[in-house]
Write a structure and sequence with these properties.
The protein has nine helices and four strands. With about 200 residues, the protein is mostly helical. It has three domains: about 45 residues; about 50 residues, no CATH class; about 60 residues. A two-stranded antiparallel ribbon has the order 1-2. The chain is elongated, with a radius of gyration of 28 Å.
């Protein structure tokens, strides 16, 4: 039988009385992680670690770096890894395999990359420059947007709460089919707005 210290016995008894790990931690002035480790080791009723995390915990406790091996879905090569990579699942050996496996992975990767870039100072400057160039090239679009914004601000036109295309609420935008008629707009959500612009380009 495993020897339990008085503190561990106290923690287990409080847990059996119905206290949560957070409440026990506050009561005994200990960290929640410390309480959770004791309960995971000694109580079957406490939620256990996942199989992956349990393997990592046991290997670290024994002084071994937790390497695991998997077979790459794209190239079939067996590869090793030792920590979770949230961006790429552990079925691809390299980034190249991840991107070449499906077009959706490639789109997702570059979308995330551009999103991270546009949050940087350089990215923000690029967006401002692109907006300025667009305004110089398309002054009629700037005028139409300014007029519809003025009409909304002064309650001349009311923006509906839902998309007129799909009926979903949230952020509603005005789409101009004809920029020479600035007050005639289609009220739609962002995805429908993008699809309307795509269909207009294809025509």
């Amino acid at each position: 039988m495993k020897y339990l210290s008085p503190r561990e016995e106290r923690i287990i008894s409080l847990f059996n009385e119905g206290f949560t790990a957070l409440e026990i931690a506050e009561r005994l002035n200990l960290s929640r992680g410390h309480i959770a480790r004791i309960l995971q080791t000694n109580c079957f009723d406490y939620p256990q670690r996942s199989a992956y995390n349990r393997r990592i915990f046991l290997r670290y406790r024994n002084g071994v770096r937790p390497w695991f091996s998997e077979k790459c879905v794209a190239c079939g090569k067996t590869f090793k890894f030792y920590k979770i990579n949230k961006r790429y699942p552990h079925i691809f050996c390299t980034q190249r395999c991840y991107l070449s496996h499906s077009p959706e992975n490639k789109r997702k990767y570059y979308r995330e990359k551009m999103r991270r870039y546009y949050k940087t100072t350089k990215g923000r400057v690029k967006i401002q420059e692109a907006c300025k160039m667009s305004a110089i090239k398309n002054p009629h679009k700037v005028t139409a947007r300014a007029r519809i914004n003025y009409a909304i601000k002064h309650n001349i036109i009311k923006k509906p709460p839902v998309c007129s295309v799909c009926g979903v609420g949230g952020r509603i935008e005005g789409h101009h089919p004809d920029y020479s008629k600035p007050l005639e707009v289609i009220w739609c959500c962002t995805p429908c707005h993008h699809s309307l612009h795509k269909s207009a380009k294809m025509v």
